[in-house]
Records
---
Amino acid sequence: MTATLVKEASPPAPAHPGGARGRRLRRRGRVIALLFVLPALLLLGALVVYPVLFSVGRSLFDASGNEFVGGGNYVEMFRDPTTLKAVRNTAIWVVVAPALLTGLGLILAVLVEKVRWATAFKLLLFMPMAVSFLAAGIIFRLAYDQDPDKGVLNAAAVAVHDAFEGSSSYPTARAREGEGLTRGADGSYVTGADVRPGGTAALGLVGVAPKDLPGDAGPARAAAARTAGPDEVRGVVYLDFTPGGGGEPGVVDRRESGLPGVEVEAVRDGRTVASTTTAADGSFRFTGLDGGPYALRLPSSNFAPPYEGVSWLGPALVTPAIIGAYLWIWTGFAMVLIGAGLSTLPRDALEAARMDGANEWQIFRRITVPLLAPVLTVVFVTLVINVMKVFDLVYIIAPGPVQEDATVLATQMWLVSFGGGNDQGLGSALGVLLLLLVVPAMVFNVRRFKGSQR
């Protein structure tokens, strides 16, 4: 009887979850979830899926979009020398930029841990990330300018060069035609008439603005009037131009200035036997010369154009220069991500290595880097994806004449489609190629991210 009462008092068994009510609840949950996800799916379809499908379809038609050409655009893509150069430059970007950024980020992240003002240092390095690629491109276009008065890099290069080698004082100077000086193939000037010991010579030049004369330049009239001894040759190098007009060409007038610092050589039988430099009044003198005729030569170094720095945006250096701008922007990003991974490393392993006698280099190479390998891989792959799509910096920094030498797939796609080529079929094929190159890196990154969550 007791068992009967217990059985009667027990609650009724719940409905089976697989029943009609359970199916209704599950269906209702799926509908609600779909309603929440629907806006995101619509945006994803409109902004990602549709453009990808449209680009794939458009790549199968000609420039007009009316004639079906199948894989013709893809064949043409790899026949075009400019496209092949874009593929080569993209490969350079993929190999160089992510590796340098990951290495710099790792080094800076490790060093910042030992800096007292670490937060301020990280802020300074990360600040370029707040600058748009457009603004960064303009900044570096100015920094790389060939004119030292505009480009800060060439201004520094010129300052260092001139500090060690100097430059010519008269890059624009030249001799008057028919006034006794003949220009050589190497840019030097040689006297047409021979000069013997005891003789003098007046070597007039033009093309130098009076305002460009050295501050210590003096009148040349007195120097031209001096006579030479029996075993010496005297002369003067002067500016054959009288301020305000007047004067006689080929004659040292009273108001004409000497040209100081000009190198003069005495040449005999094609060989330089003596060399000197003009004084403040332009005078020069050779002593101890043997008898016989000599020619006087003004070497081309007197008229060499001034050093103007490095052609950063020339065909040879434009791609490394743009990569340098990219490093300036993204180094802070790599450092912060790697620094975050560095802060999670087990400190007991590092301390145990120090207690065992390992130095800091051994700890870095054998412990820190292996433990940071997953973080370094994610940073590297993320940067690979990013550099494959680089467009702004290349388009803005590279001048028009070298745009083709710096082009990458993204810029080539734009130039072919909208920048004058007007061939959106070929441009779409380039876009599909770029997508195919990016997808494996994205899949790898997603798998690494899912693996780290497990």
---
Amino acid sequence: MKIIEILLNTSNSIALLPIRLGVGVVMAAHGSQKLFGWFGGYGLEATGQFFSESLGLKPGLLMAAMAGGTEFVGGLLLIVGLMTRLAGLSLAGTMAVAILTAHSSAFFASNNGMEYPLTLLLTSLTLAIGGGGAFSVDRKLAAK
């Protein structure tokens, strides 16, 4: 089996659709905050400075661009269901870094803990395992 077939292979179940759409919208919005300053975000420059000075992720601008880009593009890919497994895996990795660098001191989100990024990590991992499901571009491409 070719790698592209493995990446596109998915069931025809509708069960993953709400997760794919929900996580896709959330991740694209978070990425747009980092990259463009949309939805009350700080934009790339300020996010890069925060990453460098507060989180120790250097070079901050590059790390912010990578995190924001993965969240934004990965979220958009999930919304349409294109390369869902790869997008899910990339987003899970990004959330793992977020947990380790910014949210490791507590569990609950009310204390800036890992609860929310852990939920995003697990749902992204679920999509990496399950694929895009019904109503995804992956499903259409795999059927050909």
---
Amino acid sequence: MGGICTQRILTQREKQVFNLLIQNYSTKEIAAIMQISDKTVRNHISNVMLKLGVKGRAQAVVELLKLQELSL
């Protein structure tokens, strides 16, 4: 009914990764900022792409913007 949907697609960490991605940080830079491995950053990105059913980072960003999970 008229309730607000509060369910989010992204975990807090995934959101952090994508917020840094849209600020043009590289995987390596994101890993350093978040103090996690490059592989973990890539895993977060892959997980989000799987959740959204998209094939690339750019497509994932576009979908997340449409879903209002991210904002520029």
